[in-house]
Amino acid sequence: MSEKMRTYKAHPMSLLFSIITKIAVIITIAIFFFIVGYVIIRGVPYLTPSLFEWEYNTENASMMPAIITTFEMVGIALLIAAPLGVFCAIYLVEYAKKGNKLVKWIRLTTETLSGIPSIIYGLFGNMFFVIFLQWRLSLLAGACTLAIMVLPLIIRSTEEALKSVDDSFREGSYGLGAGKLRTIFVIVLPPAMSGILSGIILAVGRIVGETAALIYTAGTVAKIPGLFESGRTLALHMYVLSNEGLHMNEASATAVVLLVTVLLLNALASLVAKKLSKGEK
Amino acid sequence: MIITDIENKGTAGAAAAIKPKKFNLHRLGESVMGVVFFLSACVSIIAVVLICAFMFVRGCPTIAEIGVADFLLGTEWRPLNSTPSFGIFPMIIGSIYVTAGAIIVGVPIGLLTAVFMAKFCPRKLYKWLMPPINLLAGIPSIVYGFFGMIVIVPIIRNVFGGDGRGNSILTASILLGIMILPTIVGMSQSAMKAVPESYYEGALALGATHERAVCTVIIPAARSGILASVILAIGRAIGETMAIIMIAGNQPRLPDSILDGVRTLTANIVLEMSYATGLHYDALIATGVVLFVFILLINLLFNAITSKKER
Protein backbone atom coordinates (compact mmCIF):
# COMPACT_ATOMS: atom_id res chain seq x y z
CA MET A 1 0.00 0.00 0.00
CA SER A 2 2.77 2.42 0.97
CA GLU A 3 4.59 1.45 -2.18
CA LYS A 4 1.53 2.35 -4.16
CA MET A 5 1.36 5.71 -2.38
CA ARG A 6 5.00 6.33 -3.25
CA THR A 7 4.32 5.68 -6.92
CA TYR A 8 1.40 8.05 -6.77
CA LYS A 9 3.56 10.69 -5.12
CA ALA A 10 6.00 10.46 -7.98
CA HIS A 11 3.18 10.52 -10.53
CA PRO A 12 0.44 12.84 -9.29
CA MET A 13 -1.40 12.71 -12.62
CA SER A 14 -1.86 8.97 -12.21
CA LEU A 15 -3.37 9.53 -8.80
CA LEU A 16 -5.66 12.20 -10.20
CA PHE A 17 -6.82 9.92 -13.01
CA SER A 18 -7.45 7.08 -10.64
CA ILE A 19 -9.51 9.37 -8.44
CA ILE A 20 -11.65 10.80 -11.23
CA THR A 21 -12.50 7.36 -12.57
CA LYS A 22 -13.62 6.40 -9.09
CA ILE A 23 -15.75 9.54 -8.89
CA ALA A 24 -17.32 8.69 -12.25
CA VAL A 25 -18.25 5.20 -11.07
CA ILE A 26 -19.71 6.56 -7.87
CA ILE A 27 -21.78 9.06 -9.87
CA THR A 28 -23.08 6.35 -12.22
CA ILE A 29 -24.03 3.97 -9.45
CA ALA A 30 -25.47 6.78 -7.33
CA ILE A 31 -27.66 7.93 -10.23
CA PHE A 32 -29.15 4.46 -10.54
CA PHE A 33 -29.95 4.13 -6.85
CA PHE A 34 -31.18 7.72 -6.67
CA ILE A 35 -33.62 7.27 -9.57
CA VAL A 36 -34.93 3.94 -8.34
CA GLY A 37 -35.02 5.03 -4.71
CA TYR A 38 -36.68 8.36 -5.44
CA VAL A 39 -39.36 6.90 -7.68
CA ILE A 40 -40.15 4.16 -5.17
CA ILE A 41 -40.13 6.34 -2.07
CA ARG A 42 -42.25 8.96 -3.74
CA GLY A 43 -44.75 6.49 -5.18
CA VAL A 44 -45.24 3.81 -2.53
CA PRO A 45 -47.38 5.93 -0.16
CA TYR A 46 -49.92 6.39 -2.96
CA LEU A 47 -50.28 2.68 -3.69
CA THR A 48 -53.82 2.45 -2.38
CA PRO A 49 -56.36 -0.32 -2.97
CA SER A 50 -58.47 2.07 -5.04
CA LEU A 51 -55.69 2.05 -7.64
CA PHE A 52 -56.39 -1.62 -8.25
CA GLU A 53 -60.14 -1.40 -8.73
CA TRP A 54 -61.53 -3.27 -11.67
CA GLU A 55 -62.92 -0.26 -13.54
CA TYR A 56 -61.06 2.90 -14.42
CA ASN A 57 -62.73 6.22 -13.80
CA THR A 58 -61.41 9.74 -13.37
CA GLU A 59 -61.79 9.51 -9.61
CA ASN A 60 -59.78 6.39 -8.81
CA ALA A 61 -57.43 6.48 -11.85
CA SER A 62 -57.21 2.72 -11.44
CA MET A 63 -54.34 0.96 -13.15
CA MET A 64 -55.99 -2.46 -13.17
CA PRO A 65 -57.27 -2.28 -16.77
CA ALA A 66 -53.82 -1.07 -17.82
CA ILE A 67 -52.14 -3.98 -16.06
CA ILE A 68 -54.40 -6.49 -17.77
CA THR A 69 -53.89 -4.75 -21.12
CA THR A 70 -50.15 -5.01 -20.56
CA PHE A 71 -50.46 -8.77 -20.03
CA GLU A 72 -52.54 -9.10 -23.18
CA MET A 73 -50.07 -6.98 -25.13
CA VAL A 74 -47.07 -9.01 -23.93
CA GLY A 75 -48.86 -12.26 -24.72
CA ILE A 76 -49.89 -11.37 -28.24
CA ALA A 77 -46.64 -9.65 -29.17
CA LEU A 78 -44.63 -12.66 -27.95
CA LEU A 79 -46.97 -15.08 -29.69
CA ILE A 80 -45.92 -13.38 -32.92
CA ALA A 81 -42.32 -12.45 -32.23
CA ALA A 82 -41.02 -15.47 -30.30
CA PRO A 83 -41.62 -18.15 -32.96
CA LEU A 84 -40.49 -15.86 -35.76
CA GLY A 85 -37.36 -14.81 -33.92
CA VAL A 86 -36.42 -18.33 -32.80
CA PHE A 87 -37.09 -19.80 -36.26
CA CYS A 88 -35.06 -17.05 -37.89
CA ALA A 89 -32.13 -17.80 -35.58
CA ILE A 90 -32.47 -21.54 -36.30
CA TYR A 91 -32.27 -20.76 -40.00
CA LEU A 92 -29.20 -18.57 -39.48
CA VAL A 93 -27.31 -21.06 -37.32
CA GLU A 94 -28.48 -24.49 -38.50
CA TYR A 95 -29.54 -24.12 -42.12
CA ALA A 96 -27.75 -21.23 -43.82
CA LYS A 97 -24.52 -22.11 -45.54
CA LYS A 98 -21.43 -19.99 -45.14
CA GLY A 99 -21.25 -17.06 -47.51
CA ASN A 100 -25.02 -17.14 -48.07
CA LYS A 101 -26.04 -13.73 -49.41
CA LEU A 102 -29.41 -13.87 -47.68
CA VAL A 103 -27.70 -14.20 -44.31
CA LYS A 104 -25.85 -10.96 -44.95
CA TRP A 105 -29.14 -9.24 -45.67
CA ILE A 106 -30.81 -10.71 -42.60
CA ARG A 107 -27.91 -9.52 -40.44
CA LEU A 108 -28.03 -6.06 -41.95
CA THR A 109 -31.79 -5.71 -41.55
CA THR A 110 -31.90 -7.01 -37.97
CA GLU A 111 -29.17 -4.54 -37.07
CA THR A 112 -31.15 -1.79 -38.76
CA LEU A 113 -34.30 -2.82 -36.91
CA SER A 114 -32.53 -2.72 -33.56
CA GLY A 115 -31.33 0.82 -34.29
CA ILE A 116 -34.70 2.27 -35.29
CA PRO A 117 -36.19 4.40 -32.50
CA SER A 118 -39.54 3.37 -31.14
CA ILE A 119 -41.34 6.46 -32.41
CA ILE A 120 -40.54 5.41 -36.00
CA TYR A 121 -42.10 2.03 -35.21
CA GLY A 122 -45.09 3.91 -33.90
CA LEU A 123 -45.36 5.96 -37.08
CA PHE A 124 -45.01 2.89 -39.26
CA GLY A 125 -47.53 0.96 -37.17
CA ASN A 126 -49.96 3.83 -37.47
CA MET A 127 -49.56 4.00 -41.26
CA PHE A 128 -49.49 0.26 -41.92
CA PHE A 129 -51.52 -1.62 -39.32
CA VAL A 130 -53.90 1.13 -38.20
CA ILE A 131 -54.67 2.87 -41.48
CA PHE A 132 -53.53 0.67 -44.38
CA LEU A 133 -54.80 -2.63 -42.96
CA GLN A 134 -57.69 -0.78 -41.28
CA TRP A 135 -57.25 -2.39 -37.89
CA ARG A 136 -57.81 1.03 -36.29
CA LEU A 137 -56.20 1.80 -32.95
CA SER A 138 -56.20 -1.70 -31.52
CA LEU A 139 -54.43 -4.19 -29.32
CA LEU A 140 -53.46 -6.21 -32.39
CA ALA A 141 -51.93 -3.23 -34.22
CA GLY A 142 -49.90 -2.37 -31.13
CA ALA A 143 -48.81 -5.95 -30.59
CA CYS A 144 -47.70 -6.37 -34.21
CA THR A 145 -45.70 -3.14 -34.03
CA LEU A 146 -44.01 -4.28 -30.84
CA ALA A 147 -43.38 -7.75 -32.29
CA ILE A 148 -41.30 -6.21 -35.08
CA MET A 149 -39.54 -4.04 -32.51
CA VAL A 150 -38.41 -6.91 -30.26
CA LEU A 151 -37.66 -9.29 -33.12
CA PRO A 152 -33.93 -8.40 -33.36
CA LEU A 153 -33.52 -8.90 -29.62
CA ILE A 154 -34.97 -12.42 -29.76
CA ILE A 155 -33.08 -13.32 -32.94
CA ARG A 156 -29.74 -12.24 -31.50
CA SER A 157 -30.08 -13.97 -28.13
CA THR A 158 -31.35 -17.18 -29.74
CA GLU A 159 -28.51 -17.10 -32.23
CA GLU A 160 -25.94 -16.74 -29.46
CA ALA A 161 -27.56 -19.56 -27.52
CA LEU A 162 -27.66 -21.91 -30.50
CA LYS A 163 -24.06 -21.15 -31.38
CA SER A 164 -22.96 -21.98 -27.85
CA VAL A 165 -24.26 -25.56 -28.26
CA ASP A 166 -21.27 -27.72 -29.08
CA ASP A 167 -21.14 -29.19 -32.58
CA SER A 168 -20.39 -32.64 -31.17
CA PHE A 169 -24.00 -32.73 -29.92
CA ARG A 170 -25.25 -32.34 -33.49
CA GLU A 171 -22.77 -34.83 -34.90
CA GLY A 172 -23.70 -37.37 -32.27
CA SER A 173 -27.35 -36.95 -33.09
CA TYR A 174 -26.80 -37.31 -36.83
CA GLY A 175 -24.58 -40.29 -36.13
CA LEU A 176 -27.46 -42.01 -34.34
CA GLY A 177 -29.59 -41.50 -37.41
CA ALA A 178 -31.73 -38.57 -36.33
CA GLY A 179 -32.90 -36.14 -39.00
CA LYS A 180 -32.11 -32.47 -39.01
CA LEU A 181 -35.43 -31.38 -37.55
CA ARG A 182 -35.26 -33.91 -34.76
CA THR A 183 -31.68 -32.93 -33.99
CA ILE A 184 -32.70 -29.28 -33.67
CA PHE A 185 -35.76 -29.81 -31.49
CA VAL A 186 -34.53 -32.66 -29.32
CA ILE A 187 -30.79 -32.09 -29.09
CA VAL A 188 -29.92 -28.47 -29.85
CA LEU A 189 -32.83 -26.47 -28.43
CA PRO A 190 -32.96 -27.86 -24.86
CA PRO A 191 -29.43 -26.79 -23.85
CA ALA A 192 -29.98 -23.44 -25.63
CA MET A 193 -33.26 -22.86 -23.81
CA SER A 194 -32.00 -20.66 -21.01
CA GLY A 195 -30.29 -18.32 -23.47
CA ILE A 196 -33.43 -18.07 -25.58
CA LEU A 197 -35.52 -17.54 -22.49
CA SER A 198 -33.34 -14.73 -21.25
CA GLY A 199 -33.76 -12.97 -24.60
CA ILE A 200 -37.52 -13.40 -24.43
CA ILE A 201 -37.65 -12.05 -20.88
CA LEU A 202 -35.67 -9.00 -22.01
CA ALA A 203 -38.19 -8.58 -24.81
CA VAL A 204 -41.02 -8.68 -22.27
CA GLY A 205 -39.25 -5.94 -20.33
CA ARG A 206 -39.07 -3.77 -23.42
CA ILE A 207 -42.71 -4.34 -24.26
CA VAL A 208 -43.81 -3.47 -20.73
CA GLY A 209 -41.80 -0.25 -20.73
CA GLU A 210 -42.69 0.87 -24.25
CA THR A 211 -44.72 4.01 -24.83
CA ALA A 212 -43.81 5.82 -28.03
CA ALA A 213 -44.52 2.88 -30.33
CA LEU A 214 -47.91 2.25 -28.75
CA ILE A 215 -49.47 5.66 -28.39
CA TYR A 216 -50.63 5.80 -32.04
CA THR A 217 -51.03 2.09 -32.64
CA ALA A 218 -52.84 0.77 -29.57
CA GLY A 219 -54.35 4.07 -28.48
CA THR A 220 -55.08 5.27 -24.98
CA VAL A 221 -58.54 4.00 -24.02
CA ALA A 222 -58.54 2.95 -20.37
CA LYS A 223 -60.52 -0.26 -20.69
CA ILE A 224 -59.67 -3.92 -21.00
CA PRO A 225 -59.61 -4.32 -24.77
CA GLY A 226 -60.49 -7.10 -27.16
CA LEU A 227 -58.19 -7.90 -30.06
CA PHE A 228 -59.48 -5.09 -32.27
CA GLU A 229 -60.17 -2.58 -29.52
CA SER A 230 -57.96 0.20 -28.25
CA GLY A 231 -56.33 -0.11 -24.83
CA ARG A 232 -53.49 1.46 -22.91
CA THR A 233 -50.67 -0.48 -21.34
CA LEU A 234 -49.23 0.46 -17.96
CA ALA A 235 -46.48 2.65 -19.42
CA LEU A 236 -48.96 4.49 -21.60
CA HIS A 237 -51.33 4.82 -18.66
CA MET A 238 -48.55 6.50 -16.74
CA TYR A 239 -47.80 8.87 -19.61
CA VAL A 240 -51.43 9.91 -19.94
CA LEU A 241 -51.75 10.47 -16.18
CA SER A 242 -48.61 12.57 -15.91
CA ASN A 243 -49.48 14.45 -19.08
CA GLU A 244 -52.90 15.45 -17.78
CA GLY A 245 -51.23 16.60 -14.58
CA LEU A 246 -54.37 15.91 -12.54
CA HIS A 247 -53.27 12.61 -11.04
CA MET A 248 -49.59 13.08 -10.28
CA ASN A 249 -49.77 10.95 -7.14
CA GLU A 250 -51.46 8.12 -9.00
CA ALA A 251 -48.86 8.52 -11.74
CA SER A 252 -46.03 8.13 -9.24
CA ALA A 253 -47.68 5.03 -7.80
CA THR A 254 -47.97 3.64 -11.34
CA ALA A 255 -44.29 4.45 -11.85
CA VAL A 256 -43.40 2.23 -8.89
CA VAL A 257 -45.29 -0.74 -10.29
CA LEU A 258 -43.82 -0.20 -13.74
CA LEU A 259 -40.26 0.31 -12.56
CA VAL A 260 -40.24 -2.65 -10.18
CA THR A 261 -41.75 -4.93 -12.83
CA VAL A 262 -39.23 -3.94 -15.48
CA LEU A 263 -36.24 -4.13 -13.14
CA LEU A 264 -37.30 -7.56 -11.91
CA LEU A 265 -37.68 -8.77 -15.50
CA ASN A 266 -34.22 -7.49 -16.40
CA ALA A 267 -32.66 -9.04 -13.30
CA LEU A 268 -34.44 -12.31 -14.08
CA ALA A 269 -33.11 -12.25 -17.64
CA SER A 270 -29.51 -11.90 -16.54
CA LEU A 271 -30.03 -14.56 -13.87
CA VAL A 272 -31.32 -17.00 -16.47
CA ALA A 273 -28.46 -16.09 -18.79
CA LYS A 274 -25.98 -16.71 -15.99
CA LYS A 275 -27.43 -20.16 -15.53
CA LEU A 276 -26.57 -20.81 -19.16
CA SER A 277 -22.91 -19.89 -18.74
CA LYS A 278 -22.70 -21.99 -15.59
CA GLY A 279 -24.22 -24.94 -17.42
CA GLU A 280 -21.43 -24.67 -19.97
CA LYS A 281 -18.75 -25.20 -17.38
CA MET B 1 -49.00 -38.91 -34.21
CA ILE B 2 -50.29 -40.42 -37.44
CA ILE B 3 -47.09 -42.34 -37.91
CA THR B 4 -47.21 -43.96 -34.50
CA ASP B 5 -50.89 -44.80 -35.00
CA ILE B 6 -50.12 -46.67 -38.16
CA GLU B 7 -47.23 -48.42 -36.52
CA ASN B 8 -49.33 -49.58 -33.58
CA LYS B 9 -52.20 -50.90 -35.66
CA GLY B 10 -50.36 -52.50 -38.51
CA THR B 11 -48.97 -56.00 -38.57
CA ALA B 12 -45.33 -56.62 -39.29
CA GLY B 13 -46.02 -56.97 -42.99
CA ALA B 14 -48.11 -53.84 -43.18
CA ALA B 15 -45.51 -51.92 -41.24
CA ALA B 16 -42.91 -52.95 -43.77
CA ALA B 17 -45.15 -51.80 -46.58
CA ILE B 18 -45.82 -48.49 -44.87
CA LYS B 19 -42.22 -47.87 -44.00
CA PRO B 20 -41.35 -45.99 -47.19
CA LYS B 21 -44.43 -43.79 -46.58
CA LYS B 22 -43.26 -43.00 -43.08
CA PHE B 23 -39.95 -42.02 -44.51
CA ASN B 24 -41.70 -39.68 -46.96
CA LEU B 25 -43.77 -38.08 -44.22
CA HIS B 26 -40.59 -37.45 -42.37
CA ARG B 27 -39.00 -35.91 -45.41
CA LEU B 28 -42.09 -33.80 -45.96
CA GLY B 29 -41.87 -32.52 -42.36
CA GLU B 30 -38.23 -31.71 -42.82
CA SER B 31 -38.77 -29.71 -45.96
CA VAL B 32 -41.91 -27.96 -44.68
CA MET B 33 -40.09 -26.84 -41.55
CA GLY B 34 -37.10 -25.85 -43.65
CA VAL B 35 -39.37 -23.53 -45.60
CA VAL B 36 -40.94 -22.22 -42.37
CA PHE B 37 -37.51 -21.40 -40.95
CA PHE B 38 -36.54 -19.74 -44.21
CA LEU B 39 -39.69 -17.62 -44.29
CA SER B 40 -39.27 -16.57 -40.65
CA ALA B 41 -35.74 -15.54 -41.48
CA CYS B 42 -37.06 -13.28 -44.21
CA VAL B 43 -39.43 -11.42 -41.86
CA SER B 44 -36.84 -8.91 -40.72
CA ILE B 45 -35.99 -8.11 -44.34
CA ILE B 46 -39.67 -7.70 -45.18
CA ALA B 47 -40.17 -5.50 -42.12
CA VAL B 48 -37.31 -3.16 -43.05
CA VAL B 49 -38.50 -2.97 -46.65
CA LEU B 50 -42.06 -2.20 -45.52
CA ILE B 51 -40.95 0.42 -43.03
CA CYS B 52 -38.72 2.13 -45.59
CA ALA B 53 -41.41 1.93 -48.27
CA PHE B 54 -44.17 3.39 -46.10
CA MET B 55 -41.98 6.12 -44.67
CA PHE B 56 -40.44 7.27 -47.94
CA VAL B 57 -43.44 6.79 -50.23
CA ARG B 58 -45.60 8.83 -47.93
CA GLY B 59 -42.97 11.28 -46.71
CA CYS B 60 -40.95 12.22 -49.77
CA PRO B 61 -43.84 13.57 -51.89
CA THR B 62 -44.88 15.65 -48.89
CA ILE B 63 -41.42 17.13 -48.60
CA ALA B 64 -41.54 17.90 -52.33
CA GLU B 65 -44.99 19.44 -51.95
CA ILE B 66 -43.90 21.72 -49.10
CA GLY B 67 -40.59 22.36 -50.81
CA VAL B 68 -37.33 20.82 -49.67
CA ALA B 69 -35.80 24.12 -48.56
CA ASP B 70 -39.01 25.39 -46.96
CA PHE B 71 -39.40 22.14 -45.06
CA LEU B 72 -35.86 21.56 -43.88
CA LEU B 73 -34.73 25.16 -43.42
CA GLY B 74 -38.02 26.91 -42.68
CA THR B 75 -38.12 28.29 -39.15
CA GLU B 76 -41.89 28.60 -38.89
CA TRP B 77 -43.97 25.63 -37.78
CA ARG B 78 -47.57 26.78 -37.97
CA PRO B 79 -49.54 23.78 -39.20
CA LEU B 80 -52.94 25.12 -38.14
CA ASN B 81 -52.76 28.59 -39.68
CA SER B 82 -55.01 29.40 -42.63
CA THR B 83 -51.85 29.52 -44.73
CA PRO B 84 -49.92 26.85 -42.86
CA SER B 85 -46.14 26.75 -42.84
CA PHE B 86 -44.20 23.57 -42.18
CA GLY B 87 -40.62 24.44 -41.36
CA ILE B 88 -38.88 21.86 -39.17
CA PHE B 89 -35.53 23.62 -38.87
CA PRO B 90 -36.12 24.45 -35.17
CA MET B 91 -36.84 20.78 -34.51
CA ILE B 92 -33.73 19.62 -36.34
CA ILE B 93 -31.66 22.10 -34.36
CA GLY B 94 -33.47 21.04 -31.19
CA SER B 95 -32.63 17.37 -31.76
CA ILE B 96 -29.01 18.22 -32.51
CA TYR B 97 -28.61 20.47 -29.46
CA VAL B 98 -30.17 17.97 -27.10
CA THR B 99 -28.12 15.10 -28.50
CA ALA B 100 -24.90 17.11 -28.34
CA GLY B 101 -25.75 18.07 -24.76
CA ALA B 102 -26.34 14.43 -23.89
CA ILE B 103 -22.96 13.50 -25.34
CA ILE B 104 -21.23 16.27 -23.38
CA VAL B 105 -22.86 15.10 -20.16
CA GLY B 106 -22.85 11.36 -20.73
CA VAL B 107 -19.62 10.53 -22.55
CA PRO B 108 -17.05 11.73 -19.98
CA ILE B 109 -18.82 10.06 -17.07
CA GLY B 110 -19.56 6.95 -19.09
CA LEU B 111 -16.05 6.62 -20.43
CA LEU B 112 -14.38 7.10 -17.05
CA THR B 113 -16.78 4.59 -15.54
CA ALA B 114 -15.91 2.17 -18.33
CA VAL B 115 -12.18 2.63 -17.66
CA PHE B 116 -12.72 1.84 -14.01
CA MET B 117 -14.92 -1.15 -14.74
CA ALA B 118 -12.55 -2.59 -17.31
CA LYS B 119 -9.17 -1.98 -15.74
CA PHE B 120 -9.28 -0.72 -12.16
CA CYS B 121 -12.15 -2.63 -10.65
CA PRO B 122 -11.43 -5.55 -8.31
CA ARG B 123 -13.29 -8.63 -9.50
CA LYS B 124 -15.37 -8.90 -6.36
CA LEU B 125 -16.58 -5.33 -6.70
CA TYR B 126 -17.28 -5.78 -10.41
CA LYS B 127 -19.91 -8.37 -9.64
CA TRP B 128 -21.77 -5.79 -7.58
CA LEU B 129 -21.24 -2.71 -9.74
CA MET B 130 -22.12 -4.03 -13.18
CA PRO B 131 -25.75 -5.10 -12.55
CA PRO B 132 -26.92 -1.60 -11.53
CA ILE B 133 -25.26 -0.11 -14.61
CA ASN B 134 -26.98 -2.67 -16.83
CA LEU B 135 -30.30 -2.14 -15.08
CA LEU B 136 -30.00 1.56 -15.88
CA ALA B 137 -30.63 0.50 -19.48
CA GLY B 138 -33.77 -1.33 -18.46
CA ILE B 139 -35.56 1.62 -16.87
CA PRO B 140 -38.41 2.62 -19.22
CA SER B 141 -38.02 6.03 -20.81
CA ILE B 142 -41.36 7.11 -19.41
CA VAL B 143 -39.99 6.60 -15.89
CA TYR B 144 -36.88 8.59 -16.80
CA GLY B 145 -39.15 11.34 -18.06
CA PHE B 146 -41.19 11.27 -14.89
CA PHE B 147 -38.03 11.43 -12.79
CA GLY B 148 -36.78 14.36 -14.88
CA MET B 149 -40.09 16.13 -14.46
CA ILE B 150 -40.27 15.87 -10.69
CA VAL B 151 -36.54 16.12 -9.85
CA ILE B 152 -34.35 17.71 -12.53
CA VAL B 153 -36.82 20.33 -13.78
CA PRO B 154 -37.37 21.89 -10.31
CA ILE B 155 -33.61 21.86 -9.64
CA ILE B 156 -32.86 23.70 -12.90
CA ARG B 157 -35.70 26.11 -12.21
CA ASN B 158 -34.40 26.88 -8.73
CA VAL B 159 -30.74 27.16 -9.67
CA PHE B 160 -31.16 29.29 -12.78
CA GLY B 161 -34.47 30.86 -11.82
CA GLY B 162 -35.74 33.83 -13.82
CA ASP B 163 -38.23 33.35 -16.58
CA GLY B 164 -37.15 29.81 -17.42
CA ARG B 165 -39.64 27.19 -16.33
CA GLY B 166 -36.99 24.54 -15.99
CA ASN B 167 -38.06 22.71 -19.14
CA SER B 168 -34.99 23.37 -21.21
CA ILE B 169 -32.17 22.06 -23.39
CA LEU B 170 -30.05 21.77 -20.26
CA THR B 171 -32.61 19.60 -18.47
CA ALA B 172 -33.04 17.36 -21.50
CA SER B 173 -29.26 17.07 -21.95
CA ILE B 174 -28.71 15.99 -18.37
CA LEU B 175 -31.48 13.39 -18.49
CA LEU B 176 -30.44 12.05 -21.89
CA GLY B 177 -26.83 11.99 -20.69
CA ILE B 178 -27.95 9.67 -17.89
CA MET B 179 -29.98 7.54 -20.28
CA ILE B 180 -27.03 6.87 -22.61
CA LEU B 181 -24.64 5.94 -19.77
CA PRO B 182 -25.27 2.17 -19.87
CA THR B 183 -24.74 2.06 -23.65
CA ILE B 184 -21.40 3.83 -23.39
CA VAL B 185 -20.17 1.97 -20.31
CA GLY B 186 -21.18 -1.46 -21.62
CA MET B 187 -19.63 -1.20 -25.06
CA SER B 188 -16.51 0.78 -24.13
CA GLN B 189 -15.57 -1.48 -21.28
CA SER B 190 -15.83 -4.61 -23.38
CA ALA B 191 -13.72 -2.89 -26.05
CA MET B 192 -11.07 -2.08 -23.44
CA LYS B 193 -11.17 -5.59 -22.06
CA ALA B 194 -10.59 -6.96 -25.55
CA VAL B 195 -7.22 -5.17 -25.83
CA PRO B 196 -4.48 -7.83 -25.53
CA GLU B 197 -2.89 -7.96 -22.09
CA SER B 198 0.57 -7.84 -23.69
CA TYR B 199 0.03 -4.19 -24.67
CA TYR B 200 -0.54 -3.29 -21.06
CA GLU B 201 2.37 -5.37 -19.83
CA GLY B 202 4.65 -3.79 -22.39
CA ALA B 203 3.72 -0.33 -21.15
CA LEU B 204 4.38 -1.37 -17.55
CA ALA B 205 7.75 -2.80 -18.54
CA LEU B 206 8.64 0.58 -20.00
CA GLY B 207 8.05 2.10 -16.58
CA ALA B 208 4.54 3.49 -16.97
CA THR B 209 2.25 3.51 -13.95
CA HIS B 210 -0.94 1.48 -14.13
CA GLU B 211 -3.02 4.59 -14.89
CA ARG B 212 -0.59 5.86 -17.49
CA ALA B 213 -0.59 2.48 -19.23
CA VAL B 214 -4.39 2.54 -19.36
CA CYS B 215 -4.51 6.13 -20.64
CA THR B 216 -1.81 5.94 -23.26
CA VAL B 217 -2.03 2.34 -24.43
CA ILE B 218 -5.36 0.69 -23.66
CA ILE B 219 -7.70 3.57 -24.49
CA PRO B 220 -6.08 4.35 -27.87
CA ALA B 221 -6.09 0.64 -28.73
CA ALA B 222 -9.80 0.43 -27.91
CA ARG B 223 -10.72 3.66 -29.68
CA SER B 224 -12.84 2.15 -32.43
CA GLY B 225 -14.97 0.31 -29.88
CA ILE B 226 -15.28 3.47 -27.82
CA LEU B 227 -16.22 5.48 -30.88
CA ALA B 228 -18.81 2.85 -31.80
CA SER B 229 -20.35 3.14 -28.33
CA VAL B 230 -20.59 6.93 -28.68
CA ILE B 231 -22.26 6.60 -32.09
CA LEU B 232 -24.74 4.09 -30.72
CA ALA B 233 -25.43 6.51 -27.89
CA ILE B 234 -26.05 9.32 -30.39
CA GLY B 235 -28.59 7.07 -32.10
CA ARG B 236 -30.30 6.41 -28.78
CA ALA B 237 -30.35 10.07 -27.83
CA ILE B 238 -31.68 11.37 -31.12
CA GLY B 239 -34.46 8.79 -31.19
CA GLU B 240 -35.54 9.25 -27.58
CA THR B 241 -39.11 10.46 -27.39
CA MET B 242 -41.20 10.11 -24.27
CA ALA B 243 -38.62 11.29 -21.74
CA ILE B 244 -37.85 14.34 -23.88
CA ILE B 245 -41.48 15.33 -24.30
CA MET B 246 -41.96 15.51 -20.57
CA ILE B 247 -39.01 17.81 -19.87
CA ALA B 248 -37.82 19.74 -22.93
CA GLY B 249 -40.57 22.36 -23.11
CA ASN B 250 -41.59 21.54 -26.70
CA GLN B 251 -41.70 25.10 -28.07
CA PRO B 252 -41.17 24.92 -31.84
CA ARG B 253 -38.77 27.85 -32.12
CA LEU B 254 -35.05 28.39 -32.38
CA PRO B 255 -33.58 28.47 -28.89
CA ASP B 256 -31.41 31.40 -27.78
CA SER B 257 -29.79 29.77 -24.78
CA ILE B 258 -29.52 26.37 -23.19
CA LEU B 259 -32.18 27.42 -20.71
CA ASP B 260 -34.75 27.79 -23.50
CA GLY B 261 -37.19 25.03 -24.21
CA VAL B 262 -36.91 23.16 -27.50
CA ARG B 263 -38.92 20.69 -29.47
CA THR B 264 -37.15 17.70 -30.98
CA LEU B 265 -38.12 15.86 -34.16
CA THR B 266 -39.44 12.96 -32.11
CA ALA B 267 -41.50 15.23 -29.85
CA ASN B 268 -43.00 16.97 -32.87
CA ILE B 269 -44.44 13.68 -34.10
CA VAL B 270 -45.94 12.55 -30.81
CA LEU B 271 -47.35 15.92 -29.82
CA GLU B 272 -49.38 16.54 -32.96
CA MET B 273 -50.23 13.10 -34.34
CA SER B 274 -53.39 12.88 -32.29
CA TYR B 275 -55.16 15.72 -34.10
CA ALA B 276 -53.25 16.01 -37.38
CA THR B 277 -55.11 15.50 -40.67
CA GLY B 278 -54.30 15.96 -44.33
CA LEU B 279 -51.07 17.75 -45.12
CA HIS B 280 -50.37 18.23 -41.42
CA TYR B 281 -50.36 14.44 -40.89
CA ASP B 282 -48.14 14.01 -43.94
CA ALA B 283 -45.78 16.68 -42.65
CA LEU B 284 -45.41 14.69 -39.43
CA ILE B 285 -44.60 11.57 -41.44
CA ALA B 286 -42.03 13.68 -43.31
CA THR B 287 -40.59 14.73 -39.95
CA GLY B 288 -40.29 11.02 -39.23
CA VAL B 289 -38.50 10.54 -42.55
CA VAL B 290 -35.91 13.17 -41.62
CA LEU B 291 -35.38 11.42 -38.28
CA PHE B 292 -35.25 8.06 -40.05
CA VAL B 293 -32.56 9.30 -42.43
CA PHE B 294 -30.53 10.56 -39.47
CA ILE B 295 -30.82 7.14 -37.85
CA LEU B 296 -29.91 5.27 -41.03
CA LEU B 297 -26.80 7.42 -41.44
CA ILE B 298 -25.83 6.75 -37.83
CA ASN B 299 -26.37 3.01 -38.35
CA LEU B 300 -24.23 3.12 -41.48
CA LEU B 301 -21.45 4.87 -39.61
CA PHE B 302 -21.75 2.36 -36.76
CA ASN B 303 -21.54 -0.60 -39.15
CA ALA B 304 -18.55 0.92 -40.92
CA ILE B 305 -16.67 1.29 -37.64
CA THR B 306 -17.51 -2.11 -36.18
CA SER B 307 -16.79 -4.00 -39.39
CA LYS B 308 -13.43 -2.22 -39.67
CA LYS B 309 -12.66 -3.41 -36.18
CA GLU B 310 -13.41 -7.00 -37.11
CA ARG B 311 -10.97 -6.83 -39.97
Task: Walk me through this protein's architecture.
The complex is a heterodimer of chains A (281) and B (311). Chain A is an all-alpha fold. Chain A has helices spanning 2-10, 12-43, 64-95, 101-115, 118-132, 139-163, 167-175, 180-209, 234-244, 248-280. Chain A is globular. The two termini of chain A are 36 Å apart. Chain B has two domains: 2-66, no CATH class; 77-310, MetI-like (MetI-like fold). In chain B, 80% of the residues lie in helices and 1% in strands. A two-stranded antiparallel ribbon of chain B has the order 1-2. The two termini of chain B are 50 Å apart. At the A-B interface, helix 2, helix 3, helix 4, helix 5 and helix 6 of A face helix 2, helix 4, helix 5, helix 6 and helix 7 of B.
Keywords:
heterodimer, A: 281 residues, mainly alpha, 2 domains, 0% strand, B: 311 residues, MetI-like fold, 13 helices, globular, disordered N terminus
Short recap of the structure:
The complex is a heterodimer of chains A (281) and B (311). With 281 residues, chain A is mainly alpha-helical.
